[in-house]
Hints:
Elements: H1 5-12, H2 16-24, H3 31-43, H4 50-57, E1 62-67, H5 73-88, E2 92-97, H6 102-114, E3 119-122, H7 130-136, E4 142-145, E5 156-159, H8 161-174, E6 180-184, H9 189-204, E7 214-216, H10 224-227, H11 231-241, E8 247-250, H12 253-265, E9 275-279, E10 293-297, H13 299-314, E11 323-326, E12 328-331
Parallel strand pairs: 1-2, 1-3, 3-4, 4-5, 5-11, 6-7, 6-8, 8-9, 9-10
Antiparallel strand pairs: 10-12
Amino acid sequence: MGTSMKDVARLANVSTATVSHVINKTRNVNPETEEKVLKAIKDLNYNVNPVARNLRSGSSRIIGYVVSNLANYFFMDIALEIDAILSKNGYNLIYINSGEDPEKERKNIENLVMQNVDGLIVAPLGRDCQYVKDIVGDKCPCIFFDRKPEHCEWDTVLSTNVKGTFDGTEYLIKRGYKRIAFVGSRLDVTMQERISGYTSALTKHGIDVDEDLIKSGSGRPRSMYEQKRGDAYYLAETLITEQKVDAILCGNALATVGVMTCLKDKGCRIPEDVGVIGFDDDFWMTMGSPQISAITQDKAAIGAKTAEILLERIKGSKKPIQEYRIPTDIILRESC
């Protein structure tokens, strides 16, 4: 016969309720008592049956993380921060990749809800998120991040996208660049915010907004390696050969990969011929020459805030739904 919770409680000289609280993290337990329980669990080689535990508690201890492209370091870095916080609170994170496919995203969310997840974290593909509300309802809390939803009143965690690109564009203007282009990998609601910041800076400084200098790719999911010669590569090629731009503001790291590859292939001197600022700061931006200036998103803060809000909602928080904006910053390097 296997070891039971009662056996653990007897060896640790505590109640079975205390053992349950330690295992399920449902109540704070005195650290000394918790250590005794954990030692008893180890000494008796007691294995918790997660299925039975979940059936008893009505909780799966699982959180679904649904994003468009897990090949994007941005989503993975945020996931790691969320996972670190959730795991400390007894939850496991399931990573789901929707591949920029709305139907796949819908099915992913449906499957997670059917698995009785305790919460969802979603970077939605589209602007209209009524379908998410229809699927999830009140079955579990849902937090959106990175992309702002419409027709779905749930907490959202975003960066200060408009201010970030405004500041980046204004810096390029003050450096003397005249024909500044914008290149994004996909025209979603977040990219539209970033375009708004870009155009606002031009207008403030009396520079006409030229729609021919605003380019976005198809958003087809690719690995970072494939992005080297993805949509952004060919958009940048058009901008430097036909539009004669002297600076490019990249809407995200995926676009920056393609733009920088193109400029180097074409023999452009950076920043003398073309200045570059990327939105998102990735490790590879300092590995080559020139090092790339970047508008940084605080991915640790985005992940921490997302996890914090979700845990509060799981515990039943009734505070008003909010939109949280995490500040961006600029790191200036050699590319502009």
